[in-house]
Write a structure and sequence with these properties.
single chain, mainly alpha, Lipoprotein, signal
Length: 124
């Protein structure tokens, strides 16, 4: 039979792990309508893809740093000092922006294929 204290500790661990920020590669792309980029010509699509890609790369670094910080804080909370659990931030506006940028990048790719732009996209 599992003690009540053990159940509380397990519940706390589950909560803390679930509230950590996601790794950048685990942030799903948000939907962005292709209509947004329909007026763009191939040169404009390429420039926009570059801008979106650079910003997404910046945010990916920030997101991964947050993930690492949250993981360290969670470990400290479970092992050493449970009030540290309140320092775990999880996902925030930057995560939402990263999801939007991933969606924009996917949509730019789709529109460039529809317009036969011949652009080559590298997934980071």
């Amino acid at each position: 039979m599992v003690s009540r204290t053990a159940l509380v500790v397990l519940a706390l661990i589950g909560f803390l792990v679930g509230s950590c920020a996601k790794k950048a590669e685990d942030v799903p792309a948000a939907y962005v309508s292709p209509l947004t980029y329909q007026p763009y010509n191939c040169q404009q699509l390429a420039a926009e893809a570059e801008r979106v890609s650079q910003r997404a790369a910046e945010l990916s670094g920030v997101q991964n740093k947050k993930r690492t910080r949250d993981t360290v804080t969670t470990t400290a909370a479970v092992i050493v000092f449970w009030p540290a659990a309140f320092l775990v931030n999880g996902d925030d506006a930057q995560t939402a922006e990263l999801a939007r940028l991933k969606g924009e990048f996917q949509t730019i790719q789709q529109v460039s294929v529809q317009k036969n732009c011949g652009l080559r996209f590298q997934q980071g």
